[in-house]
User: Fold these one by one.
Assistant:
Number 1:
Amino acid sequence: MKLIYRGAEAELYEHEFLGLPTVIKKRLEKAYKQPQLDKALRLKRTKSEARMLERARGAVRTPHVLDIESDTIVMERIEGSTAKEEFAEGNVESAKGIGEAIKRMHDKGIVHNDLTTSNILLPGPRFIDFGLSKMSPAVEDKATDLIVFKKMLASTHYKVFDQVWGKVIEGYAPSKAIAMKMSAIEKRVKYR
Ligand SMILES: Nc1ncnc2c1ncn2[C@@H]1O[C@H](COP(=O)(O)OP(=O)(O)O)[C@@H](O)[C@H]1O
Ligand SMILES: [Mg+2]
């Protein structure tokens, strides 16, 4: 198996499963954590991520989950690039579609809770990394999801930030309630 990514939480490998191109995401043990608690948390996140990948599919494109085994998910491999790579190259055409997709996800009651350009694959957009996501109808949770994404875009993609964020919001077309909550959160963060 070929290692393609190593993060703080997980390692990802390329693999063939029943002849299909797949990615294996294995959550890592944390040596400094109490072993039973660590294991329970890894299993919980893995299960929850697989469930949310499937659940979100009604609203947005996500890789199909082929297998799940304790701390490991086997999923369909998306051949393409991350939105991070595309934005870094100045390719920002996907931004509006990303906003539209986030809106569909929120309308279905799913907040992703880790919206970054590494967690959006193109073409698609396809969304991944649902380990922290949850079902929530709360305006506050949706607004926070957007603000976290905005902050990430501003720090990582400052060269194309204005263009990208403008298109994301055009696609998302926030309701008045969400727009107001976003301003409130931003003020709170600024004056803290
Ligand atoms: N299904 C997939 N197809 C192709 N690449 C993937 C897939 N899932 C993850 N990746 C790649 O691996 C990286 C890390 O995966 P991710 O689930 O976001 O792990 P982490 O929780 O460590 O951030 C992604 O940013 C992407 O580049
Ligand atoms: Mg990720």
Number 2:
Amino acid sequence: MTRQIPYVNLQAQFDAERDELMPLIEACLAGGHYVGGEAIAAFEVKAAALCGCDHAVALNSGTDALVFAMLALGIGAGDEVITPPNSFVASTAAVMHIGATPVFVDVRDDQNIDPDLIEAAVTPKTKAIMPVHLTGRIADMAPILEIAARHGLAVIEDAAQSVGSLYDGRPAGSLGTAGCFSAHPLKNLNACGDSGFLTTNDADLAEQVRLLRNHGLVDRDTVTRFGGVSRMDSLQAVILNYRLGRLDEVTAARRRNAARYRELLNSQWVFMPPCRNVEFNTFHTFVIQVDRRDELRDHLTKAGIGTGIHYPVPIHLQPAAEMLGHGHGDFPMCERQAGRILTLPVNQSLNQDDIAYVAERVNDFFASVVD
Ligand SMILES: Cc1ncc(COP(=O)(O)O)c(C=O)c1O
């Protein structure tokens, strides 16, 4: 039977935590507090501490964290937000959702927004820069923050993929005006359903987001601004509070797996963006860039190895983005990467032998097809 290396293994994660987690879930269900309450308050304290921020607001998704950050900052119709075109679609969708215009800026070889190209995209309508810390690697924030300060722009970190990552010792979510995190089941810090949160040092922004997540209610009967409903479920907060206690283990396992790939994959065929001194990468994904990507992917699938492509179609080329008027060639680095990127399994349930098996299959493939 072919060995199986799953891309994700949420069952293995739950199996390892079942004995400790089930009593906590049962206590929550028996306690009858399903919305708000202690678990949410505890999560917000822990999440703020993890991200080195004064405030964390528990929400039901990373997408709503992005939407609410912009709404709280007064961004809307007629405004522009600078963001890369190679994120999960939610970054751009959030900008579209509030009626603002996403202004795309191409990326560097590490798949993150290229700070050298940002200045040229700033116009009188620009209100914010939204870098995405893709794959667990924080975007190059020093020049981004400098440009933002010079033009009076907010910086909204899309930190959905980078919980626990550091840039020059500073945590994701603490670098900009607000940090927007997802705790979707596939993320490093994951709930058993949709969840997310926002971090900030701005007390007023945090307060606005608290209102927006709960219909704008300041008390039972008074609405000061119309909001929505995007509260994190108490049950998810119970799960996340427990998993926050194991996040260091998860991060260490992913970093170990990534380091092993870097050691074993043949750099003659496989491009892996170099690690900068300033970064502590949590490897939400481990993305390589290769020629003959689709053939390699088939080869790995036959060897029982699960892979992904994050993301095969850049956002500016999606049918939904047609009204923005972009075409092929507008963001050459992002477009070139879309045909070359392949995400290898790096999840914490894999051991060093599993990683060696994947690396060998990748190297075998290139040895067999390249002269
Ligand atoms: C970069 C990025 N931004 C935003 C999101 C949206 O998060 P959520 O799925 O929690 O709404 C995700 C989730 O996959 C993401 O990867």
Number 3:
Amino acid sequence: MIIDSHAHVNFNAFKDDGDEIIKKCLDNNVWVVNVGAEIRTSARAVEYANRYEEGVYAIVGLYPLHIKIDDSLSDITDNEDFNYQEEFIYEDYLDLAKNKKVVAIGEVGLDYHYFKEGDNVESIKKRQAEIFIEIIRLANEVDKPLSIHCRGVKSRKELDHARADAYKDLLEILKNNPVNKKGVLHSFVGSYKTAREFRELGFKLSFNGIITYSESYDKVLTDTPIEDILVETDCPYLTPRPLARDERNDPMNVKYVIEKIAKVKGMEVEEVIKIVEKNTREVFEI
Ligand SMILES: [Zn+2]
């Protein structure tokens, strides 16, 4: 059994064939955890999960780029996928989060990727942090873990510094606002040292197609014990190699992520599948 711990079959890219894709996955022993990014896609993730007896689960939350910052800063991105701005309403997410098919709260966290000249960076950072802390309170109220998204700024020149910065801010928040059930850092792209810091706090790390694009993540993969690793596709995005990057990704492709981990760690694919399944079941209590 392979569990895609972070998928978006609940997104528009699958609006015509989402159930077909999910049935195919279940027939092939691939379980799917669909993750919301705002109230509509969170509700849709729960609907998907409720349609299946077993093997389909939901994560609900408000993605940092969908947080309404304030009226003067309503357009923080120029990406049309992320131009939806939402006021976080605790009670609405609480209603969804109580559903027994909801296995975590996410994807939530910090995203500095679209910072550009003229942005009031400090005020955006502050707002993202405030909402994230509210969401930690929610996770603790329903006693569920977090699925965390964290990304630094886009500019190559500042990339390393800014990445470190976003993870640094995140660590600080998690230290000051403990999450009872911990959780997972999805799509982890930090260094092995940063990975250690999160692991010390009790969090696991999830990897996707990004690790198949280059050798850049081999070090963090070899340094991180297999017991702390989850796998995901983040579909429809981040299609793993050897498939074409512009092909729509789906949960069946999570096997390529597993193969890369097995190769880098010098393990049998079957062994990786077995341990990662156990890890995922533990985090999400499924
Ligand atoms: Zn995602």
